[in-house]
Amino acid sequence: MLGLNRKLARLENDGAYIKVGLVGAGQMGRGMISQIESMKGMRVVITADLNVDNITSAYENAGIDFSNIIVTEDSDAAENAIKENKVIATKNMKLVTSLTEVDVVVDATGVPNIGAEIAWDAILNKKHIVMLNVEADVTVGPILKKVADASGVVYTGSAGDEPGAIMELYDFADAMGFEIVALGKGKNNPLNLEANPTTAEEEAKSKGSSPKMLASFQDGTKTMVEMNAVANATGFLPDVPGMHGFKGTVSELPGIFLEKERGGVLNGRKVVDFVNGVAPGVFAIIASDKEEVNAEMKYLKMGDGPNYILYRPYHLTSLETPLSIAKAYFDHEATIAPYYGLQAETVTVAKKDLNEGDHLDTIGGYTVYGKLLKADEAKESRALPIGLVDSNVKLTRSIKKGEIITYDDIIQTKESTIWKLRSMQDNA
């Protein structure tokens, strides 16, 4: 089987290319446009963003002449321009999901409800969908995958995102017959459950990132959501609510991920977790019950056992997304998807004392953070999934800091796509 690089080169040699539609021209989307423009056999032919200047500058920074960038909301004009090898900038995300010329859609918005709408529209229009929106995926990914499968298209998370990078290690170890004890990622910063856009503002400015996005990493929500996606893809579960969040170096991890009867703290195997001290890497803890395999692993300097570590010290976020685009297009396969359905749930926890009548804000905001539970635990307590949180959610009672917010504690003042899809998913 040809590698993706050879398949892309052959496609270009045949005078064709994969036509990508992108929604979201923020940091992730802009980087992806430039990366793809350096590749063979692929191009971002249309991008939607509320700020069209973000799109045109992204295309120009990628080396596309301004005369070849067409700003339009008209589908016929867009189709004709793409046929002439021009690219489109638009404010209308539905133009991206509906154009005949588009082969694969990428959601790089980071907003759960918008991501759910993009994925739904793309699937209904028979287009593969790549999600750079893990928050939407862990909330309604199971139903989106089910509908995509029925429609004959691919629903997938992205290579380069940590869940996708972890899944590559999982697939490698699983194919070789190793027992996989744990799957995890490093955390870049100490857990601060009170982080918000104000506390994150100075650091975000120095990094050129969004204060809200940085706060969502600092308060742990992003980590919970990412490992939620891994749980839904593999069936692995958090060992304790919120995971352990160990501290350690790469070489120490095989000894950290041990069960209680072996002198460790785990209640069992097949767990997802995060570790402070190994960022930005991802890892799989593996083992074997075969004497010859263990002898070979020791000879290969993989450690003394009983556990060994597979470690990847990088993930290139949206710069790797083109690999998932190509895999969906050529091989009709996902990089990562919720194969096991809803195995875990990132639930909503009050970041501070909240009052009856308060509206929640968003992930990385001032009111709530996410905590990973097993799905049956979340269902039993009627916990509100973090992906359903937005300013349309209003509290019907006061909530203490650190308390899980449930469906019984809120009313929804305006229905959204992600709420409709979640209701369909829960009632399927």
UniProtKB/TrEMBL annotation:
One of the record's GO molecular function terms: oxidoreductase activity
Start and end residues of each Oxidoreductase DRL-like catalytic domain: 160-321
UniProt cross-references to InterPro entries, sorted A to Z: Asp/hSer_DH_NAD-bd, DRL_cat, NAD(P)-bd_dom_sf
Occurrences of domain Aspartate/homoserine dehydrogenase NAD-binding (ranges): 24-152
Matches recorded under SUPFAM superfamilies: NAD(P)-binding Rossmann-fold domains
Protein name: NAD(P)-dependent oxidoreductase
Entries under PANTHER family matching the protein: SAF DOMAIN PROTEIN, STRU PROTEIN
Pfam families: DRL_cat, NAD_binding_3
Superkingdom, taxonomy of origin: Bacteria
